[in-house]
Amino acid sequence: MGKKWRWGVILDAGSSGTRLHIYRWKDPEKALKHASKEDLRSLPKLMTEKHWTKKITPGVSTFADSVEDVGPYLQSLIEHALEYVPEDKVKDTPIFLMATAGMRLLPQVQQAALTREICLYLRQNSQFSLPDCDLHIQVIKGETEGLYGWIASNYLLGGFDHPDKHQHGKGHHTYGFLDMGGASAQIAFAPNATEAAKHADDLKLLRLRTLDGSPAEHRVFTTTWLGFGVNQARQSYVSKLEEQYATSDGELPDPCLPKGLRTTLKGDPVYDSKSGIPILVGTGSFDECLKKTHPLLGKDKPCYDDPCLLNGQHVPAIDFDVNHFVGVSEYWHTTHGVFGGKDDEAYDFSTYQARVREFCGRDWDDIEPEIDSRKKHALRNAREACFKASWLINVLHEGIGIPRIGLEHLPAANVSKGALEHGKEKGFLDPFKPIDKIDGIEVSWTLGKMVLYAAGQIPPKSGDDRYPVGFGSNVAGIPPDFQFAGSSWKPLDHHHGNHTSDDDDDWDLDADDILDKAKSKSTTGFFLFLILLILALYFFRKRERRMRLYSRVNSFCRRARRPGSGARKGSGSSVRSLSGLTSKLFGRPSAAYERVLEEGDASHFELSSDIDYYSSSSSSDDGAGNYAHDYYSDHLSEGGVSAGGSSRLGRSSGLATPSVVADLASPSSVSSSALDRSGLVVRTESRERLALPMHLSAAGRRSRAGSPTRLKSPLLTPLQET
């Protein structure tokens, strides 16, 4: 099961925690067999599920002084991955741990100690593929993180596979990428043709590979600003406040806190006015907050390679006519958290700033009761919201230069759903848009890394194997600093020394596929069943209708059993089953004679008032006799026939024996159970018949043999013949 799938596991080791991501894609060898022309020109299609992710805290960097504890810290993520990656796929599934800004802040010696310990632990405690520690377990640069994010966003938006649907002008069809975490911020974009030629040496050469084996090259600028994440920026901001008021204790007025809110320098609430430690006291002046956070952009730093944006770092000029950016992480959370909601259509600068100004100017005593404290980190997010909003606005508009325009013309839909569908068809025509998910998949740089890896598994076209998948400096051939995708196009089945047949493709469904299909149909099937049940109950709500349908079905059964009716051999049991079913569904008729006369004309039987129906229990066949026998047992158990009296039913049965035999077999010895009547009683009667005078015994046998039905029963067992 699941032989057509490839799997990948990647751990995002950030500053505040480590998050597991699992991805799955179809094996290229299998995907090629049924690929359309459009598929052949596309990158591999990766899939993930919400429950395939898991986050733990704190960050890996916190184990710098106790590296021996970092392995057990990761164990829960390994176990979670093993729950979803098939057991027979684990050895072929690569595992990556890539650390970002939190680890970048550590000295090189501590970084190396942690990555070495992590690799050793994963090799000893898991079966995942980890052939190269330096490639699979590493602290990645901010530029690399930004490039992976750029790949992920363009992959999900369709900028790679459908450039004709994403024309932004001047032949441009990709999107810029902005990311902001706790410790750093990244930017990645493909400059317009003029800027790309002017700053060719500043670009990264990225090589991917489509399903048909063709190389796909892109030239991207990417850079990072370490210390420009929201947490690091806030630490810098508080330090500036301390310098401004030149005091180590007392109260520091903070315009980036709601009015009346009192916190420690780390942001924890303070309720004791005589705490004896420096505290921040909110003044709720958002315009003042914007002014105090602006210097943190470092716009006054010297620029040695013009043009520059933040902190004196070189960035090619951004042409906002063709460079349309998406923002993830804090760009999404800060615009759609306290001040917005998931139903907000997009980032509208004027509306957003008005919301922030109104919120931050309120008294904290009025805000706090409105916060749902049951939500994790809800109160902390509310306390930090004003600073984060001011920092984001400054970075976007004063730092990067995003135009301050509204987005009211967009359709009113969730950005991660409706608006992005609009973006796929018309292109993102807005200079900036915060996003979280596209088609239900989180926009994470980890996806970009795995897309690169999956593309490396596609076999290249003949003659194109000189263009490996990966990235490096923007030079011809394979640059000296080229980072390979870490994958190859070796067929998956060769890893195990066997080869599956081509037919496996058609039957190769795993449990997830089956479960997804079942879920999609279960609700519809339930409602359909409910509707049919209601209709059936409505139709048969009156007894007259049930009896009318019963009569029609019963008439069919009589014709099927009647000699010469043309019924097929072996149909008797089916007809009897149908009769039993109709009896249970519709109930039995009040008149007993309907079941008696169905076996034939009365003239075929020798009827006598001396015949007793009890003795009929010794006969059994699959014709009329068995039918009368079944009917007798049914009615006896239900009280339809009294145990001590005679009835027209008993006298009419062609299987009855003379009363002299019945007198010897007392009625009291006959059980109402069908098993007793066909078993123990039969044996008792057989023994008693041995003691009868010859003429009486023969008379009994002649009476039964004379029955037309008896002659039609050649399949009777010796026990029944007795």
UniProtKB/TrEMBL annotation:
Kindly identify the residues recorded as the active site: 145 (proton acceptor)
Keywords attached to this Swiss-Prot or TrEMBL record, sorted alphabetically, are: ATP-binding, Hydrolase, Membrane, Nucleotide-binding, Transmembrane, Transmembrane helix
Q: Which GO terms describe its biological process?
A: CTP metabolic process; UDP catabolic process
The entry's cellular-component GO terms read: Golgi apparatus; membrane
Transmembrane stretches in the record are 523-540
Recorded GO MF terms: ATP binding; GDP phosphatase activity; ribonucleoside triphosphate phosphatase activity; UDP phosphatase activity
Domain of life the protein comes from: Eukaryota
- Please identify the protein, giving its name as recorded: Golgi apyrase
InterPro entries in the cross-refs: GDA1_CD39_NTPase
Species, as recorded: Canariomyces notabilis
Q: Which family does it belong to?
A: Belongs to the GDA1/CD39 NTPase family.
